[in-house]
Design goal:
mainly alpha; two-stranded antiparallel ribbon
C-alpha cells in the first residue's frame, strides 16, 4: 500500500476554498445590501447593527405617529375654521336684526331662517368631521386618563358632564382614617435623646432621618 500526498495541490485547494468563502460572503453582502448578515461577520458588529435597526424601526413609527397626529390636527383645524366663519356670519346677522328701526318683519324672519340654517350647518360639521373613523368635534371623545394607585379611579368627562355644584360633591367614606404608627426595638427615653439618638425610617421606598443630638 502506498500513501500519496500532493502538498502543492492541497495548498492550492485550501487557498481556493478560502477564496470561495470570501467570494460567497461578498455576494451575500451585495445581494442583501448590508455588511453584517450573520454572526460570523462579527458578533459585536451584529449586535450593534440589530440595535440600530431596532432604533430605526422605532423612529420610523414615531414619525408615522407624528404625521398621523398632524393630519388629525389639520382636519380638526379646517373644520373649526369653517365653524368660525359661520359664527362670524351669525354675529353679523344678529347685529343686523337688532336694527328694528329699518328692518321689517319679513327681513327679521329671513335673518332668523338664515341663522337657523347656519346653526344646522355647524351641527353637520361637528357630526361629519372624522379622522380614522373617530368624530373629532361632536364631544364623543371626551376626556380620558390613567391613574396610579390602588385606591384611585379616573372619572371621564364628556361634553354633557355638568359643572361642579356650589355645595360640592358627596363623598362616601368607607374606612375611617387612622394615625400612622411605626414601632422599633429600641426604647426611646429622655437619656437617649439627651445623649444623641439617630432615627431612620424607611417606608414606601422613602427614607427619613432624625438626629436628636
Amino acid at each position: 500500500m502506498k500513501i500519496r500526498q500532493n502538498p502543492s495541490a492541497l495548498n492550492t485547494l485550501r487557498h481556493a476554498s478560502n477564496h470561495f468563502s470570501k467570494v460567497k460572503g461578498g455576494i451575500a453582502r451585495l445581494s442583501s445590501g448590508v455588511k453584517i448578515n450573520t454572526g460570523a461577520d462579527g458578533p459585536a458588529s451584529l449586535i450593534a447593527s440589530e440595535r440600530l435597526r431596532g432604533n430605526i424601526v422605532g423612529l420610523k413609527q414615531v414619525y408615522n405617529n407624528v404625521s398621523s397626529s398632524v393630519s388629525l390636527m389639520q382636519t380638526a383645524e379646517g373644520a373649526l375654521n369653517e365653524v368660525s366663519d359661520l359664527l362670524i356670519k351669525i354675529k353679523q346677522l344678529t347685529i343686523h336684526a337688532m336694527n328694528e328701526a329699518t328692518n321689517s318683519s319679513d327681513m327679521l324672519t329671513a335673518d332668523q331662517a338664515e341663522i337657523e340654517d347656519l346653526l344646522g350647518t355647524i351641527d353637520r360639521i361637528s357630526q361629519n368631521t372624522e379622522f380614522g373613523g373617530k368624530r373629532l368635534l361632536d364631544g364623543s371623545m371626551g376626556a380620558h386618563g390613567t391613574t396610579v394607585g390602588d385606591s384611585l379611579r379616573f372619572v371621564s368627562a364628556e361634553a354633557t358632564t355638568s359643572a361642579t355644584p356650589e355645595q360640592g360633591w358627596k363623598v362616601d367614606i368607607h374606612q375611617i382614617a387612622t394615625r400612622a404608627r411605626k414601632s422599633g426595638t429600641v426604647v426611646i427615653d429622655v437619656n437617649n435623646i439627651r445623649n444623641g439618638l439617630q432615627i431612620l425610617l424607611n417606608e414606601g421606598g422613602r427614607s427619613i432621618s432624625l438626629n436628636t443630638s
